[in-house]
Write a structure and sequence with these properties.
The structure holds two protein chains of two kinds. Chain A contains six helices and no strands. Chain A is mainly α. Chain A is globular, with a radius of gyration of 17 Å. Chain A starts with a helix and ends in a 19-residue tail after the last helix. The radius of gyration of chain B is 17 Å and the shape is globular. Chain B is mostly helical. Chain B has a domain at about 80-145. Chain B is built from six helices and no strands. The two termini of chain B are about 15 Å apart. The chains are: A mainly alpha, B mainly alpha. The interface between A and B is large, with 117 and 117 residues.
């Protein structure tokens, strides 16, 4: 139970970070992606700051040892890059990536709820393609870089 | 348009995201890839032992949004003019693509790049470029700035 509360707490913090940063405002996200137009580069600092905090802490945690999840290994293939291309297209089209759509759905935001419903359907579809119709020669080992 | 305050907010918010991601790695040994966690939570039978922390993770995200609705509703977009079908297709592409690719903005962009993964750097570069292409097409080719 304690572990569940800690997980809950970390991710309430994660969501709060997304809210403060502006990632839950799809028009702002699209402004960030509008490199060739009226570009709003401020959201680059979200990933920059997240990495600046995460990288040294990750290195410290890994030096301490213990059991933790590591990234999936694989090839540079259609799944990795084609999937990323489709993800980017969806992100640009709606202005929501999955984290902010979950947070905004929690706020009862109708656009985010619709995007999230589509995202869940997309994940479900992707899981159905796996195994039956392999898109690459990569071993089907760990499908998710961050949560096998 | 953007102002310095936007950059400060982005940096503060991003720092909290980074701290949370490191925290999950420290206390749970888990990388915080949202698509992977949501996808895993959709298969409760296959992953019964790890379903509960995923549910707690998602609950944390949802509750942060709920609190924002009460204290700072300006931080979320409650309504916009984007067509419902466009939103649903956007979500479908994002969910399908991220799941196939093995990560989304958090998975590849923070956990992956933060672990110095070249694959995640390639994926992040790819989705940034495609996002830019789609936004450019919508704003400057199809609708002339109307979206």
């Amino acid at each position: 139970m304690k572990r569940l509360l800690i997980s809950f707490g970390w991710d309430a913090l994660f969501g709060t970070g997304l809210l403060i940063s502006g990632m839950t405002l799809p028009a702002k996200v699209q402004g960030f992606l509008d490199v060739a137009g009226n570009w709003d580069p401020s959201l680059a600092f979200v990933m920059g700051a997240a990495l600046a905090v995460f990288i040294p802490l990750r290195i410290l945690i890994e030096r301490r040892g213990g059991v933790h999840e590591t990234l999936a290994r694989g090839h540079y293939d259609v799944r990795l890059l084609g999937g990323a291309a489709l993800f980017g297209a969806g992100w640009g089209l709606g202005g929501y990536c999955p984290g902010p759509s979950v947070v905004s759905a929690g706020a009862g935001a109708l656009p985010a709820i619709i995007v999230l419903a589509g995202t869940l359907a997309g994940i479900w579809l992707a899981d159905r393609t796996r195994g039956s119709a392999p898109l690459s020669i990569a071993p089907p080992a760990s499908p998710d870089a961050c949560a096998p | 348009m953007f102002v310095a305050a936007d950059i400060a907010r982005a940096a503060v918010g991003g720092s909290l995201v980074g701290l949370s991601t490191a925290g999950m790695l420290y206390t749970h040994g888990r990388l915080s890839g949202i698509t992977g966690i949501v996808g895993g939570a959709m298969h409760p039978k296959a992953q019964s032992e790890s379903w509960s922390w995923r549910a707690a993770f998602i609950a944390g995200l949802l509750v942060s949004g709920l609190i924002a609705r009460v204290v700072r509703p300006d931080l979320v977009t409650l309504h916009n003019t984007t067509n419902v079908v466009v939103l649903a297709v956007a979500g479908l592409l994002a969910g399908f693509g991220a799941r196939i690719s093995g990560g989304c903005t958090s998975g590849h962009g923070i956990c992956g790049i933060g672990s110095f993964s070249l694959r995640s750097m390639a994926a992040t570069g790819t989705f940034m470029v495609l996002g830019a292409v789609v936004v450019y097409t919508m704003r400057h080719v199809l609708f002339g700035g109307g979206v």
